[in-house]
Design goal:
By secondary structure, the chain is of the alpha+beta class. The protein has three helices and ten strands; from the N terminus they run H-H-H-E-E-E-E-E-E-E-E-E-E. It has a domain at about 120-265: Immunoglobulin-like, CATH 2.60.40.
């Protein structure tokens, strides 16, 4: 509505300027004719010319001719056509501005609608029933020194909290023991290993039908200054054909409780 009002106002301005310029153009020939016609010409009175030549002339006829022949610079007036072109350009600029704003609003609305209809997978982890707690062990290869390791068996359960189905294509994870407050802000997903690459459809609002139990081992034993962290990523495809993923990160406490990492948002992120 605002765009139509602006176009109407600009059109009225063009009509007013056009009528004013036409009226001025019609009055100009009459003025020129009146200037060319002398009013009541009278015979010129005879004059007496007296020549006085003293010394050398101060200027030559060539110099006078050169001075008189220089044209005076005049600014050209803006024509009716130039006003018309400027007005049309302004109208197109207004139309382009409002059109771009409308396209941007539609794009943002479509993106928000797409995000609202996309699947959103969360990963829950617990101890496998009957395998609660950690297993401490030692191992040796050949003549190498004996090494210590800490083992767990976890159960993975995926839940789709989105509005549309998803197809899970890959699950990856890694178990590490690190010093407290030394965990990187971004998970190193290249260090994870694939433990499940089965295609698994997951309907909206449903959890995995096939729960996965998997064994993980980390070198060393946990001290009071260490964290035991299990982190990974689940990759899936939505109904729009886009590849998406969900990262997950959990801490295993000294009492073997599994708690989701807090203060590390990149370890529990959906994209």
């Amino acid at each position: 509505m605002r765009l139509l009002v602006a176009v109407a106002l600009i059109s009225s301005l063009f009509l007013f300027l056009s009528s004013s310029n036409d009226a001025q153009d019609k009055t100009k020939p009459n003025q020129r004719e009146s200037e060319r016609q002398p009013s009541n010409p009278s015979p010129a009175a005879p004059t007496t010319t007296i020549e006085i030549n003293i010394g050398t002339p101060t200027s030559t006829s060539g110099e006078i001719h050169k001075q008189d022949s220089r044209p005076e610079a005049k600014s050209a007036p803006i024509t009716h056509g130039e006003w018309l072109i400027a007005g049309i350009t302004a109208v197109y600029a207004l139309i382009s501005y409002f059109t771009l704003k409308a396209i941007k609003r539609q794009a943002l609305s479509a993106e928000a609608e797409l995000a609202a209809q996309s699947p959103w997978i969360m990963v829950n982890i617990e101890h496998t029933p009957g395998m609660h707690g950690r297993f401490l062990g030692t191992s040796r290869e050949g003549n190498e020194p004996e090494t210590h390791h800490t083992d767990f068996i976890f159960r993975f359960d995926c839940i789709n909290h989105g509005q549309t189905p998803a197809l899970i294509t890959e699950k990856r994870a890694n178990l590490i023991i690190v010093r407290k407050n030394s965990l990187p802000k971004h998970p190193d997903l290249t260090a994870t290993r694939v433990f499940d690459d089965r295609a698994e459809p997951l309907a909206a609002g449903k959890e995995s039908v096939m729960k996965r139990d998997e064994h993980f081992s980390a070198p060393g034993y946990q001290s009071l200054d260490d964290w035991v962290v299990l982190y990974g990523v689940v990759k899936y495809r939505d109904v729009f054909g886009r590849d998406r993923q969900t990262t997950f990160g959990y801490e295993v406490t000294i009492g073997d409780k599994i708690e989701r990492l807090s203060g590390y948002p990149k370890y529990n992120e959906n994209s």
